[in-house]
Design brief:
Layout: E1 4-8, E2 10-13, E3 18-24, E4 34-39, E5 45-51, E6 58-60, E7 68-73, E8 78-83, E9 92-99, E10 113-116, E11 120-125
Parallel strand pairs: 2-11
Antiparallel strand pairs: 1-3, 3-8, 4-5, 4-9, 5-6, 7-8, 9-10, 9-11
Length: 126
């Protein structure tokens, strides 16, 4: 089973930027699509962004489109989420996730992912 270790996040003012990273154990990480989800206080977990296993297929939630960018570095077994022009409504715990099966395209369905990072807090002040 793969382990996903997240880093980044923190507190930033509205309009600022943050970068989240997710490092995976295991040599087969490059074969899987990966995604970012988030959970705000009192709400369910929601899809943020996903990238296909080959790195050329992307999905973004409408709420972050044009502000966030997902990237995958297969050589380093990492996936990142660059978050720009942050808004207070982006405040949440962010989770990275790896797909259940290899060679898949980017997907927004939570059930498509089986391995999860520990979560990292992102707080955007107004």
């Amino acid at each position: 089973q793969v382990q996903l270790a997240q880093s980044g996040g923190g507190l930033v003012q509205a309009g600022g930027s943050l970068r989240l990273s997710c490092a995976a154990s295991g040599r087969t990480f490059s074969l899987y699509s990966t995604a970012w989800f988030r959970q705000a206080p009192g709400k369910g977990r929601e899809f943020v962004s996903a990238i296909g296993w080959s790195g050329d297929n992307f999905l973004y939630a409408d709420s972050v489109k044009g502000r966030f960018a997902i990237a995958k570095d297969n050589a380093k077994n990492t996936v990142s989420l660059q978050m720009d022009r942050l808004k207070p409504e982006d405040t949440a715990v962010y989770y990275c996730a790896r797909a259940k099966t290899p060679y898949g395209s980017a997907r927004y369905e939570e059930y498509a992912y089986s391995d999860w990072g520990q979560g990292t807090q992102v707080t955007v002040s107004s």
